[in-house]
C-alpha cells in the first residue's frame, strides 16, 4: 500500500513515506480515536501529516485531525517523514484502520 | 439584602434526603479578554507566560486525570484524557506563539484568536458529534485563560468535601464525575425531574433540588445551604431552629433506615409465603455493590446507555463484556437483566435532536438502524452470560415484529460466538420491556415468544397519558395511579401468567408503598427498585398478605380517578397493614413559610 514518494519539500530526506488508509472503527476519527492517534504520533520524532480531499494537516494536532471530519470508511493519506518513519507508519496506519480494538 | 437572613427557595425534589453544607457556586467561566499591543522587547516574556500557563494547566489536568481514574475508573478518566490532547495540541501552541511574536499581541488575545481560527472548520462541520467536542475545547481554553488572567476557575471536581453544589445547570458528564463524599447536595436553577443529571444524583444518593429559580444569584459562596430533597427546598442561611428541626428529622429517618438494615439477609417473602424477586435498578458497578449489600436478589434493570454516552462513541464489544461480566460475577448466583441501549428520548445522543424524541428514533428503533452497534452489544451480553446469571431485555418494543427481528439477530450472534469459540449460556432468558401501551395491549402475543416481561412503569405512564414529565406545565398530570395505567399493568401481569412466564416491574411505581401493595395484589413476581430502597421495599413485602392485597387491588382498579385510587390504597394500607404506618415515611410538613 505505502510507497516512497520523492519529495523535495523537506531539507535532508529525499523521500517521505506515504500511503492511503481507510479509516476504521464505528464512528470515524472522532475525539477519542483522534486523541489516541495524536498520543501515538507524538511518540515519534518524524513529522506526521494526514490528508483528506486534498487538504493536508498536522497529524500531531487533534484539532487539525478533527477538522478533516473523517467518517468511518473514508480514505485518508498518511504521510510520515523522519528518522523513525517506517515504524511510525506501521503503528499509525494500524491505529487508523482498527482504532476500535485499542479499547 | 441581609446576608444573614434565612431565605427559602422552592424547586422540584429529584433526589431524596437532607444535606447541609457550605455552598460551592459553580459558574461557567466567561473571562473578559482585552487586546493589548506589545512592545517588541516584551514578546519573549509573553511567549514564556503563555507556555507557563499551558504547563500549569497540564499539571492540573494530569492530577485530575489520576484522581478521576482512581475514583471512577479509566473510562471516565478518558474524558480528561481527550482534554489533555486539546491542551497540548501542537498547532495551537505553535500558532499562538507565532501570533504573539508576529502580531505583537498579548497571550490571552493571541490564544483566543488562534483557537477561533483553528477550530473554525470543526465548529462549522456538519457533524453534530464534532461540534459537541467544541465544549471540551471551551473547557480547556477556560482553564488556560484563567491561568493567564490569574483568576480562580470553578470546577465541580475541585470541591471541598461536604459542599453543596449550586449551579445554573450541570452537564451529565460533570454529574457523572461527582463524588458523593465531596458534593453532599445539589441545587440547580435548570433541569427537570427526569434529566440525566437528576437520575445521576439519585443513583449516587445525593439529595438534589432542581428548578430552584435564581439560586445562583441569591447564594453567596461558602454560605450554609440546607437541601431538602423531599420537599424540593433550598434553604439559605438556615436559622438555629430550622437546623434543629431538620436534625431531629434526619435522626428519625436514620433510625428508621437502621432498623431496616437488619432485613438485608432476610428474604423478600410476603406474610402468606410468596417469594418476590426483589432486585435493583442500576447503571454503575458501584450501585450494584450497594444493591448487593442492601440485600437485593438480582439486578432487575441494568442500564447501558451511560456506557455509550460516557465515551461519546460506541463502546467496543470487549469494553462492554468487561463491564457486564463484572456485574454478573458480583451478583452471582442472582440474575442481572441487561437492557440493551435505550438511547434517544431524554438520553440524548450528543448533537442529535428531533422534534419528538420520545416518539422518535429511540431505543430498539435506533438499534435496528445501527445493526453493528446492536449486534456488538448482544455479543457482549451473551459472552457475559458465561460468567453469571445474565438475561437480555429489549426496550421500547411496540410490535411483535421488533421482537422477532431481535431474536433473529440473537440467533446470528450465537452462531458467530460458537464459530469464534466464545462461551455463552445457552439457556439465557430473553424478555421485553412493556413500556408502550401497544406492548401492554399485545402482552399476550409477546409473552408467547419470550421468557419474561418487565413493566417499565415510568414510560408506560408517560405514553399512556401523553404526558412529558420533564415539561413543567403538564408534569402534574403524570400519575402512576391513573386507572388507565393500572389496567395496562394488570393486563400485562395476567398475560404473562397465562403463558407461564414471570413478570416484573422496574420503575418508580415499584418504590411507592402504595404501588407495591397494588402490584403484590395483582400477582407481580419481581420488583426492581433503586438500590437505596431495597430494605424499605423488603420491609413492605414482608408485611403484606397477597390474598388480602388482591382484594385491595381488585377494588382499586374499579376506581375512576388516580386520586380516588391513591386515597383508597392509603386507607386500606393503614387499615389492613398497620405495621406499615411507619414505612409511609412522609416528611411531616414543616412550616417553611411563604411559598406557593
TrEMBL record, chain B:
Q: Provide the top EC class.
A: transferase
Describe the location of the PEP-utilising enzyme C-terminal domain by residue ranges: 260-545
Active site positions, chain numbering:
196, 506
Residues reported to bind Mg(2+): 435, 459
Residues binding phosphoenolpyruvate: 303, 339, 458-459, 469
Instruction: Name the needed cofactors.
Output: Mg(2+)
SUPFAM superfamilies the record matches: Enzyme I of the PEP:sugar phosphotransferase system HPr-binding (sub)domain (SSF47831), Phosphoenolpyruvate/pyruvate domain (SSF51621), Phosphohistidine domain (SSF52009)
What GO terms describe the biological role, i.e. biological process, of this protein?
Answer: phosphoenolpyruvate-dependent sugar phosphotransferase system
- Asked if the keyword Metal-binding belongs to this entry, the reply reads yes
Domain PEP-utilising enzyme mobile per the UniProt entry, residue ranges? 160-232
**Reactions catalysed according to its record:** L-histidyl-[protein] + phosphoenolpyruvate = N(pros)-phospho-L-histidyl-[protein] + pyruvate
Any GO molecular function: kinase activity
Q: Could you give one GO CC term from the UniProt record?
A: cytoplasm
EC nos: 2.7.3.9
Where is it chiefly localized?
cytoplasm
Phosphotransferase system enzyme I N-terminal domain: from which residue to which, for each copy? 10-133
Q: Where in the cell is it found?
A: Cytoplasm
- What Pfam families does its record include? PEP-utilisers_N, PEP-utilizers, PEP-utilizers_C
List keywords of the entry alphabetically.
Cytoplasm, Kinase, Magnesium, Metal-binding, Phosphotransferase system, Pyruvate, Sugar transport, Transferase, Transport
PANTHER family assigned:
PHOSPHOENOLPYRUVATE-PROTEIN PHOSPHOTRANSFERASE
What does it do?
General (non sugar-specific) component of the phosphoenolpyruvate-dependent sugar phosphotransferase system (sugar PTS). This major carbohydrate active-transport system catalyzes the phosphorylation of incoming sugar substrates concomitantly with their translocation across the cell membrane. Enzyme I transfers the phosphoryl group from phosphoenolpyruvate (PEP) to the phosphoryl carrier protein (HPr).
Tell me its family.
Belongs to the PEP-utilizing enzyme family.
What is the protein name given in its UniProt record? Phosphoenolpyruvate-protein phosphotransferase
Amino acid at each position: 500500500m505505502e510507497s516512497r514518494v520523492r519529495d523535495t519539500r523537506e531539507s535532508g530526506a529525499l523521500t517521505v513515506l506515504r500511503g492511503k488508509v481507510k479509516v476504521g472503527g464505528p464512528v470515524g476519527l472522532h475525539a477519542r480515536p483522534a486523541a489516541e492517534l495524536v498520543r501515538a504520533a507524538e511518540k515519534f520524532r518524524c513529522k506526521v501529516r494526514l490528508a483528506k480531499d486534498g487538504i493536508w494537516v498536522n497529524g500531531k494536532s487533534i484539532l487539525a485531525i478533527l477538522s478533516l471530519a473523517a467518517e468511518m470508511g473514508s480514505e485518508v493519506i498518511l504521510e510520515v517523514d523522519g528518522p523513525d518513519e517506517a515504524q511510525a507508519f506501521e503503528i499509525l496506519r494500524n491505529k487508523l484502520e482498527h482504532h476500535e480494538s485499542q479499547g | 439584602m441581609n446576608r444573614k437572613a434565612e431565605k427559602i427557595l422552592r424547586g422540584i425534589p429529584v433526589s431524596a434526603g437532607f444535606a447541609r453544607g457550605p455552598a460551592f457556586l459553580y459558574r461557567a467561566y466567561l473571562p473578559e479578554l482585552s487586546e493589548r499591543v506589545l512592545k517588541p522587547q516584551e514578546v519573549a516574556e509573553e511567549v514564556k507566560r503563555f507556555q507557563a500557563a499551558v504547563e500549569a494547566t497540564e499539571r492540573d489536568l494530569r492530577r485530575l486525570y489520576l484522581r478521576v481514574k482512581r475514583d471512577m475508573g479509566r473510562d471516565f478518566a478518558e474524558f480528561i484524557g481527550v482534554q489533555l490532547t486539546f491542551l497540548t495540541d501542537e498547532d495551537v501552541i505553535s500558532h499562538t506563539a507565532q501570533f504573539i511574536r508576529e502580531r505583537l499581541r498579548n497571550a490571552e488575545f493571541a490564544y483566543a484568536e488562534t483557537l477561533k481560527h483553528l477550530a473554525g472548520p470543526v465548529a462549522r462541520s456538519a457533524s453534530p458529534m464534532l461540534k459537541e467536542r467544541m465544549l471540551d475545547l471551551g473547557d480547556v481554553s477556560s482553564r488556560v485563560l484563567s491561568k493567564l488572567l490569574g483568576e480562580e476557575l470553578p470546577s465541580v471536581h475541585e470541591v471541598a468535601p461536604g459542599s453543596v453544589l449550586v449551579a445554573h445547570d450541570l452537564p451529565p458528564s460533570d454529574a457523572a464525575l461527582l463524588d458523593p463524599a465531596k458534593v453532599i447536595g445539589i441545587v440547580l436553577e435548570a433541569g427537570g425531574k427526569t434529566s440525566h443529571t437528576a437520575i445521576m444524583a439519585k443513583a449516587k444518593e445525593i439529595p438534589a433540588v432542581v428548578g430552584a429559580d435564581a439560586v445562583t444569584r441569591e447564594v453567596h459562596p461558602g454560605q450554609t445551604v440546607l437541601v431538602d430533597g423531599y420537599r424540593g427546598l433550598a434553604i439559605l442561611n438556615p436559622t438555629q431552629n430550622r437546623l434543629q428541626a431538620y436534625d431531629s428529622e434526619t435522626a428519625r429517618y436514620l433510625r428508621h433506615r437502621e432498623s431496616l438494615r437488619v432485613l438485608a439477609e432476610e428474604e423478600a417473602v410476603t406474610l402468606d409465603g410468596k417469594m418476590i424477586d426483589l432486585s435493583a435498578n442500576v447503571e454503575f458497578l458501584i450501585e450494584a455493590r450497594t444493591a448487593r449489600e442492601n440485600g437485593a436478589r438480582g439486578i432487575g434493570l441494568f442500564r447501558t446507555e451511560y456506557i455509550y454516552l460516557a465515551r461519546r462513541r460506541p463502546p467496543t464489544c470487549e469494553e462492554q463484556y468487561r463491564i457486564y461480566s463484572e456485574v454478573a460475577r458480583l451478583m452471582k448466583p442472582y440474575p442481572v437483566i441487561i437492557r440493551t441501549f435505550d438511547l434517544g428520548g431524554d438520553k440524548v445522543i450528543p448533537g442529535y435532536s428531533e422534534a419528538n424524541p420520545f416518539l422518535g428514533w429511540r431505543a430498539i428503533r435506533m438499534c435496528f438502524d445501527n445493526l453493528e452497534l446492536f449486534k456488538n452489544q448482544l455479543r457482549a451480553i451473551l459472552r457475559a452470560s458465561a460468567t453469571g446469571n445474565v438475561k437480555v431485555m429489549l426496550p421500547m418494543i411496540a410490535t411483535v415484529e421488533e421482537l422477532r427481528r431481535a431474536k433473529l439477530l440473537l440467533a446470528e450472534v450465537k452462531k458467530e460466538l460458537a464459530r469464534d469459540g466464545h462461551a455463552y449460556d445457552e439457556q439465557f432468558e430473553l424478555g421485553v420491556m412493556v413500556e408502550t401501551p401497544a406492548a401492554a395491549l399485545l402482552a399476550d402475543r409477546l409473552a408467547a415468544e419470550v421468557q419474561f416481561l418487565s413493566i417499565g412503569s415510568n414510560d408506560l405512564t408517560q405514553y399512556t397519558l401523553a404526558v412529558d414529565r420533564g415539561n413543567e406545565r403538564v408534569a402534574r398530570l403524570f400519575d402512576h395511579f391513573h386507572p388507565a395505567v393500572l389496567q395496562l399493568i394488570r393486563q400485562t401481569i395476567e398475560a404473562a401468567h397465562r403463558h407461564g412466564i414471570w413478570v416484573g416491574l422496574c420503575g418508580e411505581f415499584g418504590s411507592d408503598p402504595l404501588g407495591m401493595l397494588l402490584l403484590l395484589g395483582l400477582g407481580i413476581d419481581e420488583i426492581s427498585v433503586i438500590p437505596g430502597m431495597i430494605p424499605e421495599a423488603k420491609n413492605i413485602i414482608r408485611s403484606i398478605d397477597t390474598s388480602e392485597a388482591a382484594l385491595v387491588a381488585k377494588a382499586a382498579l374499579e376506581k375512576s380517578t388516580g386520586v380516588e385510587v391513591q386515597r383508597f390504597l392509603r386507607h386500606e394500607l393503614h387499615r389492613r397493614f398497620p405495621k406499615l404506618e411507619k414505612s409511609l415515611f412522609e416528611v411531616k410538613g414543616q412550616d417553611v413559610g411563604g411559598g406557593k
